[in-house]
Amino acid sequence: MARKKVVAALGHRALGVTLPEQKDATRKTAGSIADLVEAGADVVISHSNAPQVGMIHMAMNEFGKVHPDYTYAPMSVCSAMSQGYIGYDLQNAIRAELLNRGIYRPVCTVLTQVSVDPYDEAFHRPVKVIGRYLTQEEAQTEERKGNYVVKEEKGYRRIVAAPKPQEIIELDSIRALFDAGHIVIACGGGGIPVLQQGTRLQGASAVIEKDYASGRLAQELDADELLILTSVEHVSVNYGEKGQRELKEITAAQAREYMENHEFEENTILPKIQASVEFVEQKPGRRAVITSIDRAKDGFLGKTGTIITN
User: What is the dihedral of CA 51, 46, 108, 41, to 10 degrees?
Assistant: First the structure.
């Protein structure tokens, strides 16, 4: 059987939150990735980073308040840090799991920048909450800096934009490593958001949605399959209601109808469906699967998950 090119997008469950949780979670996730390799997949891995980037952002900026000689860390730098330490745990866990199974495949992490459009409407409608709760005075200070805040029950939180990905800057490096037989971890957390300014890349105060970046990566690598691994085995419609129904195999056209009927939660399932539909519609024969991390192999083999085709 011919091997398939697969972009596997890992959600929060695959990584944990704290450092010890992440160490344990990545060991379990490595088993799922190794299963895919044994089943005939050549894999590029993307991953979420929401808890990690929030933790880094809070730690670096709280440290800067206590130690004025140190500068605050912008979101782009926090994103780069999260890619580095998540990739470190993930690549070591996958390497060890493959070697334990008698498989030698190089595993590497590429710190990945992804350009965004400075005129993206998302910059005027930020939705991603980051950092700790703020007092009203601290919230006003953030607003004077030009940042956005939102009031919640426990206080104020800073929110940042989630623009759509435009160009994966390190794509040629990712492709070269992938074509050479490496398992590549890339576009972590949706990528480090940057703005093109002539020949320079300037970090943007934003967070890119991981699923959209994963879909773009799958398109650019001409993958056969986009495998989005999350906390549920199937996507459901009428979620939480009496008529809740799991979606098994659907077409891209059917998925679009469900989206038009607002069946999917905007900031969780909807990006997964949108990324999947855009990926499969670009070329005949492509498939997208949304399923749980522990059913990754079965999803790849078409035995479970929400499967989207043309």
Answer: 140
Distance CA 307, CA 93 (A): 28
- Per-residue pLDDT tens digits for 131-168: 788 889 888 988 988 888 999 988 999 898 999 999 99
Burial letters 237-260, b for 16+ CB under 10 A, else e: beeeeeeeeebeebebeebeebee
Hey, how many other C-beta atoms are within 10 angstroms of the C-beta on 74? 16
Q: Nearest-CA neighbor of 115 among 47, 41, 190, 58?
A: 190
The pLDDT confidence band at residue 1, using thresholds 50, 70 and 90, is: low
Lowest mean pLDDT among 66-80, 251-265, 267-281: 66-80
Q: Give the C-alpha separation, 94 to 187, whole Å.
A: 17
CA distance 185 to 47: 8
Alpha carbons within 13 A on the beta-carbon side of 218: 34
Angle between helices 19-38 and 75-100 (to 10 degrees): 50
- Asked if residue 19 lies in contact with residue 238, where contact means CB atoms within 8 angstroms, the answer is no
Bridge partners, residue 293, by sequence: none
pLDDT for res 138: 87
This prediction's pTM:
0.93
Mean pLDDT of 34-62: 93
Residue found under tokens 């990528």: 191
Q: How far apart are CA 252 and CA 137, in angstroms?
A: 48
